[in-house]
Request: fold
Amino acid sequence: IDAHPGYQSRQWAFRQDKLVAEIWHHHAHASALAAEFPEVSDWLTLSWDGVGLGPDGSLWGGEFLRGAPGRWQRVARLRPFRLPGGEAASREIWRSAAGLLWEAGLSVPAWHPQIHLLHQAWQKGSNSPPSSAIGRLFDASAVLLGLCHQTSFEGEGPMRLQAIAQTARQGPHWPIVWERQSDLWQLDWQPWLAGLQDKQIAPAQRAWALHDALARAVITLLEKLALPASTALGASGGVFQNSLLIERLHARGLNLKLPRRHPANDGGLALGQLVETALKADQHPT
Reply:
């Protein structure tokens, strides 16, 4: 099962009076991909999605995992920002945009009648968990581009962002800033805020620029990590349902391994959980 303590499936599992294995969300994403390429023994996997609990207790979703099933190590991530209202940000995506702007020390429009009270709660860390999720960055970007402020289903903001970006052939090139934070490299989104809000540039071009910046950030990180040539680059998680992002990664010359027989999104988690569990038990999956 997923290690998140709030999932209903977790409560159900513990009522079955059977042995329960708890697997971290993004490790499962990475291991599901690895299961399709058993010949690969060393990975750098981009595990990107909307949200999932990480071993440090924060909400992951923009992770770079090095290793292989049963021994994943996070080596890089998107710079975290706190989500005002927590779970509510998945539908009221203006909350992600507010958290992004507040984290950068910027003012937030009156997107909610009690925005000032929300800011006070955010400042105190009340119901405002930190998140490194690329999906939440896409949500915030959709708001800053004026595409939507709240959604009727999970992923609507990123889908709108991708759709408009695909109408542009190119856009501005934003700076890529990686900072070393203890044992992690951290991708800073703050240099992109000015571009996202630049109304002198068409929204489609700004949306394209974000996709391209993420692809260039991967290239830059590979240079910093100086990995062995045998290291495979993989991508798993719901963000990689975004065909434009994959296109930009390939356009940068990356030989990216992607899911072929299982869904990139949470539909592939069960496979990854099985692989992780088998290896943690010192067994070998067939």
